[in-house]
Amino acid sequence: MDEAKLHEFMGKLVSDMGAAAMLANVILGDELGLYKAMADSQPVTPQALASKTGCNPRLLREWLSAHVASGYMEHRDGQFVLPKEQALALAIEDSPVYVAGGIMVVASMFHDKDKLVAAMRGDGALAWGDHHPCMFSGTERFFRPGYKTYLVGQWLPALHGVIDKLEAGARVADIGCGHGASTIVMAKAFPASHFDGFDYHAPSIATATERAREGGVSDRVSFNQGTAKDFPGNDYDLVCYFDCLHDMGDPVGAARHAYRSLKKDGTVLLVEPYANDTLDDNITPVGRLFYAASTFICTPNSLSQEVGLGLGAQAGEKRLRDVFAEAGFSQFRRAAETPFNLILEARK
What we know:
seven-stranded mixed sheet, 9 strands
């Protein structure tokens, strides 16, 4: 036994245990509005924060101390500060790096542990709709900041000729739309176009419809229940998949249906989790996060459906290119990327 290697691993394991415990504290702070109460980055005592939030001051002191020990906050003279940089990630929902709400996805993984035990000992299947409800709200809150930051300003302009079509009036299908965050971002930016959102999860469609009403875009957005292989229409200018194709049991069948649904000069926008093509090249903080999430969410969902290809969240560009080639597309390229996403374009 290599004792030094053992100590190194134990240090990593204890660090990860602390990280997991801190995520629970982040969820607590988000739900109680503690980060928003500290978003001005001004020093505050536990008692003062208790007065602002109606929370117990002794528990707040422990919660604040955990943040200092983790490097999430600063401490001086009995007062605690949420620095501006941390506030962007934890308190300000319009920030492009806001992640606090998305951590509910991690919470759902703990809620669903027993379901994953059964899946591991069985056929591997756990359908999206069978997850804890916090999965759905957490997914929306995790992805929405990226869509608001990049979709209109960078991703769509990276596609050949798509912006001109959207400005003139295009027809767009958003497949696996969930709560409609991506659909509504596009609809607000391009009022001349019409957007159809499809998802097989009925509660998500109901939420998306309400989001469209609240966002004032119901006149040009419709949400309907449907799968990636049976949504209606054959004259779309743009078909979008935002962080969902790899979750599908039959992504080739989905891409083939998109091919039939597009106009001759139509485009597919495929946004997928950032990944290289091999495991060795995905040994990164992002790869670690996405493989772990894929174990609980993406791959079991695929295995719950017909074909059950099980691409997983780290499929990589090559495997995705093969999917679209098999579906009949002749053009496929990486249009853009972020640290968390690959933005891919497919055309007939």
